[in-house]
Write a structure and sequence with these properties.
The chain has 454 residues and is an all-alpha fold. The chain has helices spanning 7-17, 26-57, 60-78, 81-85, 90-112, 118-142, 152-180, 183-202, 224-241, 245-259, 262-273, 278-306, 308-328, 332-360, 366-378, 380-395, 397-415. Helix 10 (245-259) runs parallel beside helix 15.
């Protein structure tokens, strides 16, 4: 029978017909798989870098400074990363960021052969932080161009699940590598994963961004600096005028100040106070990743059952109790379980705060409000990491962990005297106008995705 499909072609057609549209999307799947390995590599670096500083200096304060440098570079780059990404070829930018990080991190074990150079790690951390932020912003904006709108939720779900898996696998791999050949080679391995990411992006067809013609841009007088300042102020005015977002921003800024260095305290506690191996520390951090995964899965349901106020404040209470417990416990399995509770609380609180912003912010302002919210509360992180680790170096991890836990509980008590207690979202407020006759800040900017920001 001429023209009839043979058994092989027919069975192949039937197999493909059972796949979801997303599973048949070659560009997205190449992108997803390439980034999966890169996420694992990033988790390795997140663990190996402070461990390398600790092994070289034995100083908890130096670990805190490395964390502070990373946070400063991320906050600073976040102020202009969106502007850059909107004006260049995103795929090319991501490839350049990957190749640059591969070169920088891949060189660490070879440079370390001549002896530890701590100043080099500070420089590397700052540069890699800039490259990571540029890549992450381009990464978030690329996804909607790889999948149709109806597949966007499923695509983001896959990418977020990959991130959660990376937080489980990365620390275990980093701990094993650091035990066998040293944390410097763990950083070198991370560099190799960026080569894989860059190669995968070469196979992804991503529509180039058209050259900006000014359409849809904020038409504000003055140069780029004035425009950026005005856009920031519009978002800040809305944030500060909202009865829920104002206390949330203040409390989260204080929470970030005392928790951003918690990972450094955990590493020092297990590695030095309890004299455990790097491999054991890797398993402890991996168990904490389970808290991230469970928190991401449960946050929506907990929010619906308890309401925003109870859910967010309860999560902060869990964070405080977990930090205090980690500092005083000498049992490694208990510390691992408390680390998971800590990450669970941070994840649920982060998901709740992000959802609240989406609910109460008008769509034309969401990008600016999210950017201001993230910049303001994360700006306290670098100072907090440096202060927290310096105090722990002087007074010991147990004392500072107990003080941090008590401070978190004080934040909960303070929140009970704000509108967060009830947490009713209500209808979005009217946008704050930027200038007469221009509507909200002179235009309707494209809505941006919060990504993994809280």
């Amino acid at each position: 029978m001429s023209g009839a499909p043979g058994p092989t072609r027919l069975s192949k057609h039937r197999r493909l017909s059972h796949l979801s549209p997303l599973s048949r999307n070659k560009d997205f799947n190449v992108f997803w798989l390439g980034q999966a390995l890169s996420v694992i590599g990033g988790s390795i670096s997140l663990f190996a870098l402070p461990l390398l500083v600790l092994d070289a200096t034995g100083s908890l304060a130096r670990m805190g400074l490395i964390t502070a440098v990373a946070a400063v570079s991320a906050v600073g780059t976040g102020l202009f990363a969106g502007h850059v990404v909107d004006r260049v070829d995103r795929r090319r930018l991501m490839i350049v960021c990957d190749l640059s990080r591969a070169l920088l991190l891949g060189a660490v074990p070879f440079l370390w052969l001549a002896g530890p150079r701590i100043w080099l790690l500070f420089l590397l951390t700052a540069v890699v932080g800039v490259l990571r932020t540029l890549f992450d912003v381009a990464y978030v904006t690329a996804v909607p161009n790889l999948v149709p709108a109806e597949d966007l939720t499923a695509a983001n779900g896959r990418l977020m699940s990959t991130f959660a898996v990376g937080t489980l696998v990365g620390p275990v791999a980093a701990g094993a590598i650091a035990t066998w050949v040293g944390p410097d080679w763990a950083l070198g391995l991370d560099g190799a994963t960026f080569l894989v990411s860059a190669a995968s992006l070469r196979w992804v067809r991503l529509p180039p961004r058209p050259a900006p013609d000014g359409a849809g841009e904020e038409r504000l007088p003055g140069g780029g600096a004035r425009k950026a300042r005005e856009m920031f102020l519009v978002g800040f005015r809305f944030l500060w005028s909202h009865e829920l977002l104002r206390p949330l921003t203040v409390l989260l800024t204080l929470l970030t100040f005392v928790t951003i260095g918690a990972t450094d305290l955990l590493i020092f506690r297990v590695r030095r106070d309890l004299d455990q191996s790097a491999a054991t520390l890797g398993y402890v951090v991996a168990v904490s990743g389970l808290g991230t995964l469970v928190g991401a899965l449960c946050a929506g349901r907990l929010r619906r059952l308890l309401g925003f106020g109870a859910c967010w404040l309860g999560s902060v209470a869990l964070v405080g109790l977990a930090v205090a417990g980690i500092g005083v416990s000498r049992d490694v399995p208990t510390i691992a379980a408390l680390a998971a509770v800590f990450m669970f609380g941070l994840t649920v609180a982060g998901v709740c705060s992000m959802t609240l912003r989406q609910e109460v912010t008008p769509d034309p302002l969401l990008g600016r409000v999210t950017s201001v919210f993230w910049t303001v509360h994360n700006a306290s992180g670098p100072v907090g990491a440096a202060v927290l680790t310096r105090l722990a170096q002087t007074h010991g991890v147990p004392a500072i962990s107990l003080a941090t836990g008590a401070f978190c509980l004080l934040l909960v008590c303070a929140g009970l005297f704000t509108p967060l207690r009830a947490g009713r979202t209500g209808r979005p407020k009217e946008p704050v106008t930027g200038s007469p006759g221009r509507g909200p800040a002179g235009g309707l900017p494209r809505r941006t995705r919060p990504g993994r920001r809280r």
